[in-house]
Amino acid sequence: MAIIKPFKGVRPPKQFVELVESRPYDVLDSEEARAEAGDNEMSLYHIIKPEIDFEPGTSEYDPRVYEQAARNFQKFQDKGWLVQDEKEMYYIYAQTMNGKTQYGLVVCAHTRDYQTGVIKKHELTRRDKEEDRMKHVRVNNANIEPVFFAYPDNAVLDALLKRYAASEPEYDFVAPIDGFRHQFWLVSDEADIATITEEFAKMPALYIADGHHRSAAAALVGAEKAAQNPNNKGTEEYNYFMAVCFQASQLTILDYNRVVKDLNGLSDDEFLKALSKNFEVELKGEEIYKPAKLHEFSLYLSGKWYSLVAKKGTFNPSDPIGVLDVDISSRLILDEILGIKDLRSDKRIDFVGGLRGLGELKRRVDSGEMKMALALYPVTMQQIMDIADSGNIMPPKATWFEPKLRSGLVIHKLS
């Protein structure tokens, strides 16, 4: 069962929130962060992308950069740009995209739940990325940014969230970079705090939607600190890390599409003929065509769109991995026909998040940069949960959650 607790959040006073808040550290590069921060010394990028305080080209992994993060975090607190709440509480974070709102509970999850599998993952992590986040957590002694969890739908929590949603939020703004609305409430009522804790305690599992490296880093740092304390009881603050938890049915997963530089020596006709072995291939014309259901793909090639429907027998419906469209397309198109074996390292392929639309696929092919594009139907949250429950791992580049969490609304100190 899931263990969570409230915490004394470190967060910006209301009048500063729009100056402090930022995109997550891993969705933009150093120069983009430098440009977005501009001359705003209150931007959280000075803590989560502190290489922007050094000369352009400075590595984000430079030891000086981590030290600068800690100095800036302290500076933000000294100047009152970030202030710690006096009382332990939960928080509610709502995001509105294209008229749809999802409500998340900001909690502290227990590192032991990550280690024992109560917090379930669906992606592999890389040790170098884990170590980067571990250094950031260690030097700041805090979880500066939250991870993104899903939990099974819960009627009690849903009613509580709706009640708060009807009240005035602490923060309410539209982020200029994405145009999405972000709202934030404080849950300081003792009865509501108890209800949230009790309802999570009934849940057999929580699911990492986004933030696998942050989760792993937080759990590893927590374990380090526990090992260093001979009197560790498991209730110390460092045994917990910050997460925003959303009901699974509310989450939006967008398509994560592929663009490829060449046809592996094949002509267009030879490629289409090779596809017909495992797919029903239908020409759709020059208008953008979006796949309408699972196991249907859209192909853009030489100015024309095609529908590709996987034939019966090309996948096993009872295999939680083999039934995924990312696996079907990887096996039967990218690997078998195009010779692309490793999606993580092959330079002939690139990936385009669905927020950019299929027009971006068309643009990259029409420009001559890429030869063909493949659009996939989005993975469902139920598929992700089934895979996590089975102990399996999703194929690479399978999920794109949107909207992304904004950083800087609240921070969790480890002591």
Can you characterise this structure?
- With 415 residues, the chain is an alpha+beta fold.
- The chain has two domains: 4-252 and 402-413, no CATH class; 256-377, Conserved hypothetical protein from pyrococcus furiosus pfu- 392566-001, domain 2 (2-Layer Sandwich).
- The chain is 31% helix and 24% strand.
- It is built from 13 helices and 21 strands.
- It has helices at 17-20, 30-37, 45-48, 63-78, 111-116, 127-140, 155-165, 190-201, 212-228, 268-275, 325-335, 358-366, 381-390, and strands spanning 4-5, 10-11, 83-84, 90-97, 100-110, 119-120, 142-143, 147-151, 171-174, 181-187, 206-210, 240-247, 253-254, 256-260, 279-285, 296-301, 304-310, 349-353, 372-376, 400-401, 412-413.
- The strands form five sheets. Strands 1, 4, 5, 6, 8, 9, 10, 11 and 12 form a nine-stranded mixed β-sheet that branches. Strands 15-17-16-19-14-18 form a six-stranded antiparallel β-sheet, sandwiched between helices. A two-stranded antiparallel ribbon has the order 2-3.
- α4 (63-78) packs parallel to α6 (127-140).
- The relative contact order is 0.17.
Annotation, overall tally of beta strands: 21
Distance between the ends: 25 Å
Backbone shape: globular
Number of helices: 13
- Strand percentage: 15-25%
| Major sheet characteristics | 9 strands, mixed
Keywords:
415 residues, 13 helices, 6-stranded antiparallel sheet, 2 domains, alpha+beta, 24% strand, Conserved hypothetical protein from pyrococcus furiosus pfu- 392566-001, domain 2
Helix-strand layout with pairing:
Layout: E1 4-5, E2 10-11, H1 17-20, H2 30-37, H3 45-48, H4 63-78, E3 83-84, E4 90-97, E5 100-110, H5 111-116, E6 119-120, H6 127-140, E7 142-143, E8 147-151, H7 155-165, E9 171-174, E10 181-187, H8 190-201, E11 206-210, H9 212-228, E12 240-247, E13 253-254, E14 256-260, H10 268-275, E15 279-285, E16 296-301, E17 304-310, H11 325-335, E18 349-353, H12 358-366, E19 372-376, H13 381-390, E20 400-401, E21 412-413
Helix pairs in contact: 4-6, 6-9
